[in-house]
From TrEMBL:
Its cofactor is Mg(2+). Its EC number is 3.1.3.12. The gene is otsB. This is Trehalose 6-phosphate phosphatase. It catalyses: alpha,alpha-trehalose 6-phosphate + H2O = alpha,alpha-trehalose + phosphate. InterPro entries: HAD-like_sf, HAD-SF_hydro_IIB, HAD_sf, OTSB-like, Trehalose_PPase. Pfam families: Trehalose_PPase. It comes from Cupriavidus laharis.
Amino acid sequence: MDARQNHMLGFYAMPQLPLIEPNTALFLDFDGTLADLAPRPELVQVEPELVGTLHRLYERLEGALAIVSGRPIIELDDFLQPLRLPAAGVHGAEMRTGGAQMAMKSAPGLEPLIPHLEALVRRHPGLRLERKSVAVAIHYREAPELEGLVRAAVADVLRHAVGLEGLPGKMVVEVKPAGINKGDAITAFMNMPPFAGREPVFAGDDVTDEAGFAVVRKLGGIGVLVGQRDTMASVSVTGPAALRCWLHRSARALDGAPAGSEPPHASSASTTTS
């Protein structure tokens, strides 16, 4: 197969992303990673085969699989039902390990800020305010020209706030408890069974995932960027579809079945630089 055909199929002349090994501790972002992005968060669709694949990976990895997302855990459970996987929600403000109990960091100064942000959204119909358990996000995906306005408004309401910080992401700015990030969440998981002692692999797409990439790199693991941009991740795949194909192939391999029958773009990956 020549270089042009390789490019058309999504292959790159770079080392490919290896399949998941039995000693992996697997961490996965949700939006833009497991699921394709949608104009509004509630419109996201989960590929039907994905839930079964995640269940198989969870079993083959002896429980060392966690979702690490900006969404609240209750929303992740709804999208991935009937699974209730270990999870870090709201960038780590919510944590659930193997049991049903969930730990949550408080955000006592958040409520007084909500009316100011709601007023901003009412003035600009292209904006959308999303309330979370201990955070609030303003999405501007339907009005990207308002990015500067949203960032300035969030900075203004946080000027005198204590214990809160702004977190920019893809077409969104979030107000959340200060001092938490996905890297700290992954670190917490890696310090407890069944994750401890395994090689961490974290897949994510957003700038909010960079703290996670930095942690897995420090621990000798693999950061997988879904998409293309400057990053701390060590490899990349072209998009959520390629990431899902990698998960499907890995699950088949861990089951002992041949993985080579999957679509060729499943292993499209390239080395990236930080």
